[in-house]
Write a structure and sequence with these properties.
By secondary structure, the protein is mostly helical. It is built from 5 helices and no strands.
């Protein structure tokens, strides 16, 4: 039995739920784009029929990502790549969900950097 077959049989999944949710979001966006590109109707009537399911799946993954703190470099990189997708997909417009995700990502980055950077005399007190 090959390695690939063993992985499929064992139900291989990423160890991190954050990485999994990043993949789910990216796959949802990619599937939406591919469906609209392949739709023979210029107005996308066929793709729209399946779009709602993909949008909901992506929105659920984005909500989970917003509520979960990144604890490893891989998780932080995954969230940063989702942020890049959100910026490219939204053409710069920030919806409420996107704004909440970006705020959570910035807090994750701040938390990770506090352990890596020490500035004598600087205060890391909450400024809010």
């Amino acid at each position: 039995m090959s390695r690939t077959q063993r992985r499929r049989r064992a139900g291989w999944r990423p160890a991190s739920t954050i990485v999994r949710d990043c993949l789910i979001y990216a796959q949802s966006i990619a599937a939406l784009k591919a469906a609209h590109e392949m739709d023979p109707d210029p107005e996308g009537r066929y793709a729209v029929h399946h779009a709602e399911h993909l949008r909901e799946r992506g929105a659920r993954a984005l909500e989970r990502l917003t509520q979960t703190e990144a604890a490893t470099p891989d998780e932080l990189r995954g969230k940063a790549r989702v942020a890049a997708l959100l910026i490219a997909d939204g053409h710069g417009a920030l919806e409420v969900e996107v704004e909440a995700f970006m705020t959570a990502l910035l807090l994750d980055i701040e938390f990770c950097l506090q352990g890596a950077i020490f500035v004598p005399g600087a205060s890391f007190e909450p400024w809010r």
